[in-house]
Design brief:
Helices cover about 30% and strands about 30% of the residues. With about 130 residues, it is an alpha/beta fold. A 4-stranded mixed beta sheet has the order 1-4-3-2.
Length: about 130
């Protein structure tokens, strides 16, 4: 057995696909309409469709899917360029800052409120720390 990936529920698959493709910079590997897989292995799924698949019903949720209970983590070789590209289009949690373990990261919310972290590769932060 091996872990493959988390699949966040999203309320608007097209909006989230465009956000992760056009703003974050991920390449779409497969687009099945209600499910989008990116080249990195990251995937998103239309929440209502996934609710029907998993639970055989669709809840009428009034709160957003992102509930401050998971952090989606990505790495970028140029964290500053990623910040400049993403920051104007996202609700920032904080700008680029060095973590206590030496890695530089920034965090923001995606369109559904999921917390996202973009960090430099761990070996870079540790080597320069």
């Amino acid at each position: 057995m091996r872990f493959v990936n988390p699949i966040p529920f999203v309320s608007d698959i097209e909006r989230s696909k465009m956000f992760y493709r056009d703003i974050v910079g991920l390449k779409v590997l497969s687009d099945f309409g209600s499910f989008v897989l990116f080249e990195t292995g990251f995937a998103i799924h239309d929440g209502k469709a996934l609710e029907r698949t998993v639970w055989k019903t669709s809840a009428e949720m009034l709160e957003p899917y992102g509930r401050r209970n998971i952090l989606l983590y990505f790495e970028d070789d140029d964290v500053d360029a990623a910040f400049e590209r993403i920051a104007p289009h996202a609700e920032l949690i904080h700008p680029v800052e060095r973590q206590e373990w030496g890695q530089r990261v920034f965090r923001f919310h995606d369109p559904d409120g999921h917390a996202v972290e973009i960090g430099e590769p761990q070996s870079v932060g540790i080597a320069e720390g």
